[in-house]
Amino acid sequence: MAHMNPLLKSIIELRHRLEAGESLRSSFPNCLCTDDTQWNSLLKRWFMALEHGTPTDKIVKGVNSPYRRIFLELLSAGFSGAPIYQNLLEIEIEVISACEIELEQKLRKLPFHSMLPVLFLMFPAFLIILLGPVLIHLLKELSQ
User: Fold this and answer.
1) How does DSSP assign the chain, residue by residue?
2) pLDDT at 2
3) What residues of the chain score a pLDDT lower than 70?
């Protein structure tokens, strides 16, 4: 889980704790990872605002990702007393599919990106090796 999407990591950790019978209020602070990611600091800021009773709307609206925004809105509903487990499962499935789509797109571009060193570094060297003797012979003939 080292290089996992931070949102997916949070969702899975929260789901496991809810399945173990913990309440959202007791399990969420333990789900805040010790990772020093932007997502984790946003979650901590959101949770501190919620604990102090200040509005969290500005924090939620400042999030660019729709999945992260939905997750924060779901947590707000959960802290208000609404059941969130089923919706959490649905968000997890959507985030996993979005991660798979993003991974497939990056994998499709990978062959082209790996060809750039060949194109710019190796191809000119091969041209010099192939055309070098021809150019030397041509220059000798032209100089006579």
Assistant:
1) -TTS-HHHHHHHHHHHHHHTT--HHHHHHHHS-S---HHHHHHHHHHHHHHHT---HHHHHT---HHHHHHHHHHHHHHTT---HHHHHHHHHHHHHHHHHHHHHHHHHHHHHHHHHIIIIIHHHHHHHHHHHHHHHHHHHHH-
2) 62
3) 1-2, 33-34
